[in-house]
Amino acid sequence: MKFKLHRAPVWLDAQQSLGQWYSTGLGQSILRNLETRLSDSLRDVFGYQGLLVGNFEPECNLLVNAGLHRKLTLDAPGRVADINADALQLPIASDTMKLVVLWHTLDFCDNPHQALREADRILMDDGQLVIIGFNPVSAFGVRHLLTGWRRKSPWHGRFYSRWRLKDWLSVLDYRVLSSEASFIRPPINSERVLRRLKGMERLQPWMGGLGGVYIVRARKQTIPMTLARRQWRRQRKGMTVGTITNAADHARNTRRTTEKKQ
Description:
- With 262 residues, this protein is an alpha/beta fold.
- The chain has two domains: 11-222, Vaccinia Virus protein VP39 (Rossmann fold), CATH 3.40.50.150; 226-262.
- 40% of the residues lie in helices and 21% in strands.
- The N and C termini lie far apart (92 Å).
């Protein structure tokens, strides 16, 4: 028996169905969870403007508590947002955003590397990148494996692990500030049942890695880490060579002084 790999949908095509799913009981429960998580973590972000890619709930802006003068949203053409465009080709000038939030952008994108490069391009030095995605190491990941072939949102996406994201971010010279998974409750589309199971979230300190939705937060390095490492290695090599040379010169000078005295 052969299993077919789940193909990631095209980002533009996935936005409408994913927005509809967020209006369900399960989607609304996750949205409230995200609001709680981000309301605290983004309070220390200050700057002129930030961008939320993916506007699944127009009445709820996940950037609301960030210390930004302008809080912009971007979504596919035809959807409610400040900017209508493709996440793979952002119509935004380079180095202009202090914060970029990718809300399931990588999960439902056929070219996640390009989406990351675009986010990196518009971020200022020392800006922050927040990635929200579905955790494959969870009950959500199990349902994704079992029902993804039906091509129904959101289970037809491609769920990437946080470890893979960290690898991608390290290539772009980002420093991960925090990484957490939450929403331990099972992916049941019943708001009433989910409210009854809300007590499961108390297991977060012990089972947080199995949460259905993760938030990875990273900072763009002002000086690329690879360049910094090379500079440090050159400096260390120069210091070592200089120390050896100085020691040799000192030994020669001492020997000459001794010979003259004799």
